[in-house]
Design brief:
Strand order of the largest sheet: 1-2
Strand content: under 5%
Radius of gyration: 32 Å
Order of helices and strands: HHHEEHHHHHHHHHHHHHHHHHHHHHHH
Helix content: 55-70%
Oligomer: single chain
Distance between the termini: 68 Å
Length: 688
């Protein structure tokens, strides 16, 4: 068990520093002895004209003794350098902790055991104190800094022990010639050695027995987080060799049908190799640059493997991209090449599916709807794990407009078994789109909200443009992801939905309405969108600062009417085939989802109660089968509007209209009807 927070914070490094000094003295003394042995004893031995036993025994003894002195210097120097590097690393970690503890952000307390908490809990603030205190994002950041410092010290401690054991254990009766100048140097050298072992194991390819495959997996798993291991293992096989190794390993036609045990090991191999290649992709060495170039060039080509139905390079490589975090530049170079190739094909679904119909184990770890034939699936999964790369991909227009292709133009590929499974590639595209627009890895439940950049905003605008163009062919697999994107950008969406003219709106309102309609065809996606916007309305009412406070009330009404029109259009589209469950069960648990913008407690006053009122309205809609025929029976959300009016009155107690409940409900109701009618006009239902 590694050191704890308090161990690192209070670590005493005096003895370790003394050890470094002592070993430095030892190195100096040994260097003197080694020089004397080399320049005196060995020099005389080399010049001597030995005969008989002296020539065979004495000279050999002298040579061996001199080498031992040299090895002693090497080993002592390595021990000194390792201890010194470990000392400096642990000291840096301790100093980092001290800085955090002595200068925490305002409102943050760090307990003696390293627990991070608010100095004053919101429920215990004094009367009149409306300061929300530090955000959850701030608390998470402090926790991460502490964890990183403790981990750094722990890793240094473990590495020092491993190096010292390695230096001594292999030479119990003499000195060794292994030389390490730092902990990283040791890690790198060990990584290369372990990679050579892995390459030797992999040389058997598909002929590996189940036991051999397990040993191979265990070995890779033990070393896959070592950059030196990853790079040497990847480049040792070469781009072509790596793809062919994986394709052959997963071909059931080589060696007969796979046992259940074999399939489990293949799943493990897929994950391990994915992580290794992801780690290696971050290297910019000449060897790795050549490897990446070779893999991309092999993408459009069929691999040369012994059996029929040879897969393409893109198909194999993409199935090695489901795990790990790949380098941003490699992902975009690969993605540009993949999109370019698919556009050249014209009908990529038939192309990918037809050629590899018999080679169905490219993705042994995939779900029933993902056999691994569609290379866009694995690539988009990798893209979603690197939000920065995803943002770049979805805003790139050279050599082609990637977002337009994957969101609007690309046809779906059924890549699974069973009756009408969802398209795995579209699900992965949805994840990548979410990452691109929000900066959040959808696979990381601990990821915090990321402040928006101009690029994130550009992804939102471009996704609205291309997805709205699909109309009722909007991919159902992307509805929930797009709902999260809209909720993540709820301030921009609220401003657009409540705008009175197109020049005020930051988004194209017609595109926004169409996408909102398509999102509203799915019950969960509809819930995400509406609760996200409800929380933004509440934030605006609580802390917004317009010239006229009434603006926040009226904007809430307009957005409510806008969303209601989107929902009714969805109802009309699916009236013959409704897809909602009978019971309304969706809720964003206090708005804790990481894609919801981070706001202070003051901004969230009353919002949970308002969200509950909205859910009551939704359940009533389902229970009473409320619908609209030809626009005549529109019933906007009375309960929700009443809750909004009440929230506004509480947030503006000094306003002259704060106590006029009837008037407030009338005004927000009128704004909702107005917003609804404007949305109808955007859809061409009537004049705007």
């Amino acid at each position: 068990m590694g050191p704890k927070f308090e161990d690192v914070l209070h670590v005493r490094l005096g003895k370790l520093g003394d050890a470094v000094t002592d070993w430095t003295t030892t190195v100096t003394k040994l260097e003197k002895l080694s020089d004397e042995a080399r320049n005196d004893m060995k020099a005389k031995s080399d010049k001597a004209d030995w005969e008989g036993e002296n020539a065979a025994v004495t000279r050999t003894f002298v040579d061996k003794t001199v080498k031992e002195f040299q090895d002693a210097v090497t080993q002592a120097t390595s021990i000194r350098d390792i201890l010194r590097d470990g000392h400096d690393t642990i000291k840096a970690a301790r100093d980092d902790l001290k800085r955090i503890v002595e200068n925490p952000p305002e409102g943050v307390t760090i307990w003696p055991n390293g627990v991070v908490a608010r100095s004053v809990h919101p429920d215990r603030r004094g009367e009149g104190n409306t300061d929300p205190g530090p955000t959850q994002e701030t608390l998470n950041s402090v926790r991460d800094q502490i964890s990183q410092a403790v981990d750094k010290a722990s890793q240094a401690d473990e590495a020092m022990a491993a190096v010292l054991r390695s230096l001594v254990a292999g030479h119990p009766y003499d000195f060794g010639g292994d030389s390490y100048s730092s902990l990283r140097d040791y890690r790198d050298q060990q990584g290369v050695k372990e990679a050579e072992k892995a390459l030797e194991m992999a040389s058997k390819g598909s002929s590996m027995t189940d036991a051999e495959l397990k040993r191979f997996n265990d070995h890779v798993a033990e070393n896959m987080d070592n950059p030196a291991f990853a790079e040497r293992f990847a480049t040792g096989m070469g781009g072509k060799g790596f793809l062919e190794f994986y394709a052959n390993l997963n071909d059931p036609r080589q060696g007969g049908p796979f046992s259940d045990e074999r399939i489990e090991e293949l799943k493990e191999a897929q994950e391990n190799l994915s992580v290794v290649l992801a780690e290696a992709s971050h290297s910019d060495s000449p060897a790795m640059r050549a490897w990446k170039k070779e893999v991309i060039e092999l993408g459009p080509r069929q691999l040369d493997i012994p059996t029929q139905g040879n897969p393409y390079g893109f198909q194999v490589m993409s199935n090695l991209m489901h795990h790990g975090t790949y380098d941003k530049d490699f992902l975009n170079d690969y993605g540009d090449a993949l999109v370019e190739r698919e556009k050249e094909m014209g009908l990529p679904s038939r192309h990918w599916q037809g050629v590899t119909s018999g080679h169905t184990i490219l993705n042994p770890g995939g779900a029933d709807n993902d056999l691994g034939r569609d290379p866009m699936t694995g690539f988009m999964t990798a893209l979603s794990r690197n939000p920065e790369a995803s943002t770049e991909f979805f805003t790139s227009t050279h050599p082609q407009d990637n977002a337009q292709y994957v969101l609007e133009e690309r046809e779906g590929l059924p890549d699974g078994i069973g009756q009408d499974p969802p398209f795995a590639a579209r699900e992965a595209i949805g994840d990548a789109l979410f990452a691109a627009a929000t900066g959040i890895d959808p696979h990381d439940d601990t990821a915090a909200f990321v402040p928006h950049t101009d690029q994130h905003g550009a992804v939102l605008e471009r996704s609205l443009k291309y997805l709205s163009a699909t109309g009722d062919d909007f991919p159902p697999e992307i509805r929930d992801d797009m709902a999260k994107v809209l909720a993540n950008h709820s301030d921009t969406v609220h401003q657009a939905a409540s705008s009175l003219d197109p020049y005020e709106s930051p988004l194209d309102r017609k595109q926004l309405l169409e996408v909102s309609k398509q999102v509203s065809r799915d019950q969960e996606a509809y819930g995400i969108l509406n609760e996200g916007l409800l929380r933004e309305m509440g934030r605006d009412i609580n802390v917004g600062t317009p010239d006229d406070p009434k603006e926040t009330l009226l904007r809430a009404g307009h957005t409510t009417g806008f969303l209601e029109e989107a929902r009714y259009q969805a109802l009309d589209t699916d009236k013959d085939d409704p897809s909602w469950d009978a019971k309304w069960g969706y809720h964003l648990v206090g708005g804790a989802a990481n894609f919801i913008p981070v706001v202070g407690d003051a901004a969230q006053r009353g919002v949970d109660a308002m969200a509950y009122s909205w859910q009551l309205e939704e359940q009533r809609r389902i229970d009473d089968e409320i619908s609209r025929e030809n626009g005549e029976n529109f019933r906007v959300r009375e309960i929700q509007l009443k809750a909004l009016a009440h929230l506004w009155a509480e947030a503006n107690p000094d306003h002259p209209d704060a106590g006029t409940e009837y008037s407030l409900q009338h005004e927000i109701g009128g704004a909702a009807y107005d917003g609804n009618n404007r949305a109808k006009g955007l859809a061409g239902k009537n004049g705007d």
